[in-house]
Amino acid sequence: MSVTIKQISELCGVSRGTVDRVLNNRGKVKPQTEQKVREVAQKLGYKPNMAGKALAARKRDLVIGVVLAARGNAFFDDVLEGIRGAGRELSDYGVSVNVHTMKGYDVNQQCKLIREIGRNVNALIVNPINDPKVASEINRLTECGVCVITLNTDIEGTQRLCYVGSDYILGGETAGGMLGLLTQGQAQVGIVTGSIKILGHNQRITGFRNIIRKKYPNIKVADIQQTNDDDDQAFIKTEEMLRIHPEIDTIFIVAAGVMGVCRAAQKFHPNNDMTIVCFDKTPSSEQMLKAGIVKAIVCQQPFTQGNKAVHLAYDYLVSGKKPGQDSFFMKSEIKIEENL
Amino acid sequence: MSVTIKQISELCGVSRGTVDRVLNNRGKVKPQTEQKVREVAQKLGYKPNMAGKALAARKRDLVIGVVLAARGNAFFDDVLEGIRGAGRELSDYGVSVNVHTMKGYDVNQQCKLIREIGRNVNALIVNPINDPKVASEINRLTECGVCVITLNTDIEGTQRLCYVGSDYILGGETAGGMLGLLTQGQAQVGIVTGSIKILGHNQRITGFRNIIRKKYPNIKVADIQQTNDDDDQAFIKTEEMLRIHPEIDTIFIVAAGVMGVCRAAQKFHPNNDMTIVCFDKTPSSEQMLKAGIVKAIVCQQPFTQGNKAVHLAYDYLVSGKKPGQDSFFMKSEIKIEENL
DNA sequence: TTGTATGCGTTATCAA
DNA sequence: TTGATAACGCATACAA
Predict the structure, then answer these.
(1) Interchain CB distance below 8 Å, B334 and A337
(2) Is B177 part of the contact surface with chain A (CB cutoff 8 Å)?
(3) pTM (2 decimals)?
(4) Which of A24, A217, A301, B320 measures 20 to 30 Å from B136, CA to CA?
């Protein structure tokens, strides 16, 4: 049976209230008393009981806010599922989760949303645009005692509690390893990325290049194009790329625009004899995989990352203790048609 | 804010005790009262609060027992991690988890262990040997009110609460799909299985055959051998197989014995030009993957299956409600060197 | 058949 | 600076 505050209070000859004040650093305790309580708690190996904490937390009506640039981006559907699922699980434990989505990546809009939501919230989960304005908005919140967790993308220069999301380098390495296996190490690759301004996209390419340099010397990168995550641009850019580089037999799709790339690829190689690997399960990438056009999808546990972010926020709010790590990286999952 | 028993009792003009009796079917309530309470609870959408339940459950000192044929089988290390992890998480919520492992698959020993452990336990988690004796031992337990969950392998003819574990057919399909991609659909396959008496092994082969029949007509199965999950036998059988069938360029390892198979493969193909796929991450399969001898490992979320089984047992013991499904199948995960 | 009292571990509020 | 008490939601023993 584990140790309780009551037991400690009896052993110390003080009241439960006092022990609570010591253990939760609420001050207003005589140093000697504090000393004694800490000693006893330490010696007995006191670990706060989560069920008790949770029940008491109900009275505080804690709120976790979520600001996600997710609208119109199918990838985030599963992330939102994970967030909402955690919200349901935790509704019994005294917290509610408020989700706000926005469309696109407008810095000012995100700042405004963070400021508004942040006002009525004990913790905030956000996929920040990597911009100083957003960073200072986040820092303002943390100074007001609101804990901020970054989700899916991280941001520099902030006091965020932690990051939860993809390991983009690892994702790129996994895609590289998979392409190496699928092509038996012989390939002319066209890389189609979203934007060279986006850190995550670049990190995926870095990981990819690491692996082919190390393990697959006969895989060459013939060209690299940007799509701005848009299917129409993806089609145009890929078409042009394949026209100029007819030797390309393999495409590494770094970000969105999968459908556009595949349409162009089909135009030049109507019988699926290209090796295409992309990221993230969405209705369109799934469709391309089932059609045999995309050979493998590298995923990043979207449900788990949403779910985990909420649970970390909850733990911090209720137990007051910080997560054990600065960053929680998701696994890189390989999906083919059979295990989709 | 969600509805509580207290609120219902006030609205109905009865005591909390009565509402509790109705909602938990303890009887001893006048039909009219019961009717009324049910109506109100229904209308308000009453959902029991888990934190409260958990706190009250502490007084009952619930015990979850685990009997696992795991000793000497590295696959189960992660399963045990998941079980122990869940035990730690739930220790705050009024349950303790007692783990007992056994070595090998002796029916009588397992029966004995189930009987002994079952005596002092509210729920039992077991990876049963598929044998009538074990089945009747399990049924005896359920009749005594002990809930039984099967883990990793299922058993027929029992009243077990549910099954948690691998989807062996899916695993075989995934391995088949992966082999198809890696060989570009051209392969002479040698299958090395554990035993044709073991259902899971056969299901993996079934899944494998399904996929190559459907998608890869040019993949042929040249031979199939049994190893009894023993590395020495695996070496001997594989060596013989490769001698008799020099055309074999691809090996599908269904069960244990990975090291033995790989040693034999290396003997005939010293430069890693074979395509080998196997199951389950263990120190030896991991080593073979890193050496480039095994090209991919299909995994079955060992940690998650252990963790989930314990949580399901907990939910049943504390909330009294049965899991939503008869079987909880794990995902099929593809591991290559990069995302190991 | 029903109600009341008590306890699970923690936290908040008052009063001292 | 401390202690006593009530409350969170649920379960149970006991009294009526």
Answers:
(1) no
(2) yes
(3) 0.95
(4) B320
